[in-house]
Amino acid sequence: MAKTKKASTKPKSKATRKAHHEEPATKAIKSPENIIENIGNKAPISAVSETPDFQPANPSSASARITAASDDEDDNPPKKPKLSPGSTEKHYDPEDEGDMCGVSQKRDSHHEGSQPEGNQGHDTKNDSPRSERFPNSPGMPATGLNKKTWQGFCEIECDPAYFAVMVHEMGATAVTVREVFALDEDSLSRLPQPIYGFILLFRARSVATGDQEDECPKGVWFANQLPAQNSCATLAMLNILMNIPDLDIGDHLQQFKEFTADFTPYARGEALSSFSFVKRIHNSFAKKMDMLEADKHLAAQVSRKSHIPSRISPKKNDHTYRDYDEDLDEDFEENAHHFIAFLPIDGIVWKLDGMDAFPISLGPYDEVNGKDWKTIASDTITDVMQSGGDDYSIIALAQAPLVGARRELCINTKTFKQVIGRLDTLDPSWTAFTTDENGDAEEPLSPSFFAAYGIEQWQYDDAKIPESLINIVDSEELDELVLRRMDLVAEKHALVSKIQAEEADEEEENAKAERRRWDYGSLIKRWLEMLAENGWLEQHLDHFMPEEKLRESLDKMAKKGGE
């Protein structure tokens, strides 16, 4: 199989970042009447829109559309998104929404390039500069409209709960995301079944390309990751979801899949970059600082490529702001992580890396003869992990346990009715001698019972009793049927408990995602300002910074002041 060169673009992906904060000693702080200003109780904004919003067009012009949209946004940010003819999509209105801290943000009625007299480019409250991209106060989080119109993709921690919520909001409600702690058969068997695919997260570096195709096979939906976009986590999940047969992925993704069916992988990547439905869900986790950091990183890349060295070289110890920015940009790239998908498609195990030009075949599998696809994928994943460092994580996309539990409850109910019918045929008086553990006869399940556990009528109708089980029930005698009935009752109670537990888990995932979507930056900033105003930071600075570094920082500050 012919090989092609791997895309030369360096992967730009997710970096898992966690900020560790010391708990401030509140007894040293004065207690103002309003301890935190501008912090409201408004709930985070939902990321899901009602209609697909990618624009069908010539795939070759996707890049131009993206560039034009970006230029328009910079020159004249829209005051309110316009609806396309016939569209019912709901957009965020900044006048209604304000910001996520409950402070209403009224857009200036003047031209975007001008400011009210006496307030040129500054906030009237704290006299701090404003960004054209973020017209609200720098201390305020990004609004829903900021996130909607931002052209990038934010970084998201590799947390299965966040990814599960994203997948559900995209429309694939029958899929869950779980962390994989080991790739042995016993560990994988504990995950929800069936497993649709694996995603490997690792520190970005070059990996073996394997047998890369010369073109994208027709049966494989694969999209490239565009340069300077942190979309590799979402892209890896989409590269799996789009290739699962007979899976309901929702109207938005289904239409996008059909729309891009004849696109090349790169054109699909361009289309995805302008698919605001997916981008809005992804960027619902963005904080203003994430967006600013991503823009700064992209600007640094452009600056490096377009920078012409000066005729006069700087002095040996003369460090400029450009040097500092480049150091930060290098740290940003060193911490970059990348996501790769592994999954079976039509008898072949594929490695789908958005930074590769085309999919890579890992070979055929045959589960009938004991050659499982997960074993083949696990071998490649292990090789990648062993090639460098221990900074990696594995997640699996699998069928949501709720789907199987609800289907089993439907089959249980239908089997129960089959047993009751058989008992009535053998001895109509059998009910007088049969009670359950609580002393009451088991009542038939009603539609309201199923609705309480998220089971719709079509799901009940689609559930089929295995033909072999029907034959067994029809051949059993009275005493055997009575015992089977008792087993079915116990099984029903166990399934109900399982459904309740899984629903509670999903609610916890949703709550965790909502907490992550909330931007605490303004709260932390205001809290630190109060600590500084009260003198607490200065008194306890040595607790947060080693004495040597503190003295070094103070010396640098003094030196700059002298200059």
Automatic annotation (TrEMBL):
It is an enzyme of class 3 (hydrolase). The record marks 225 as: Transition state stabilizer. SUPFAM superfamilies: Cysteine proteinases. The record marks 353 as: Important for enzyme activity. GO terms for molecular function: cysteine-type deubiquitinase activity. Residues 1-144 are annotated as: Disordered. Keywords: Hydrolase, Protease, Thiol protease, Ubl conjugation pathway. Its EC number is 3.4.19.12. GO terms for biological process: protein deubiquitination; ubiquitin-dependent protein catabolic process. The active site is at 232 (nucleophile), 338 (proton donor). Residues 1-19 have a biased composition (Basic residues). Residues 105-133 have a biased composition (Basic and acidic residues). Residues 152-399 form the UCH catalytic domain. One of its GO terms (cellular component) is cytoplasm. This is ubiquitinyl hydrolase 1.
